[in-house]
Amino acid sequence: HIHHLSPKIPNYRLEDCHNDNPMFQAIEPLTVRTSLKSLRVRLWDEDRHKMIGYHQPDEAPLE
């Protein structure tokens, strides 16, 4: 998401900036399937460094 790093980059240059920067080459593209999976998660677990679903304190977090 280059526009989050530098909002001054015009939309017509986003693809070039993405392709020219090695940092963005390891990012998995967002697909319909992966976007639907994201509907299950709601919270960032700082200890595990991943997104988790809502749960009660006495229940196991959603995987």
Task: Write a structural description.
The chain is of the alpha+beta class and 63 residues long. It has two domains: 1-27, no CATH class; 31-63, no CATH class. The protein has three helices and two strands, in the order H-H-H-E-E. It has a two-stranded antiparallel ribbon with strand order 1-2. The model has no long low-confidence stretch (mean pLDDT 79).
Q: Please, what is the average pLDDT?
A: 79
Q: How do the helices and strands follow one another from N- to C-terminus?
A: HHHEE
Number of helices: 3
- Tally the beta strands: 2
Distance between the termini: 25 Å
Q: How large is the radius of gyration?
A: 16 Å
How large is the share of residues in beta strands? 5-15%
- Low-confidence parts: none
The biggest beta sheet reads: 2 strands, antiparallel
Q: Percentage of helical residues?
A: 25-40%
Task: Classify the secondary structure makeup into a structural class.
Answer: alpha+beta
Overall morphology:
elongated
Keywords, separated by commas or semicolons:
63 residues; alpha+beta; 2 domains; two-stranded antiparallel sheet; 10% strand; elongated
Q: What's the topology here?
A:
Layout: H1 2-5, H2 14-20, H3 32-37, E1 43-45, E2 50-52
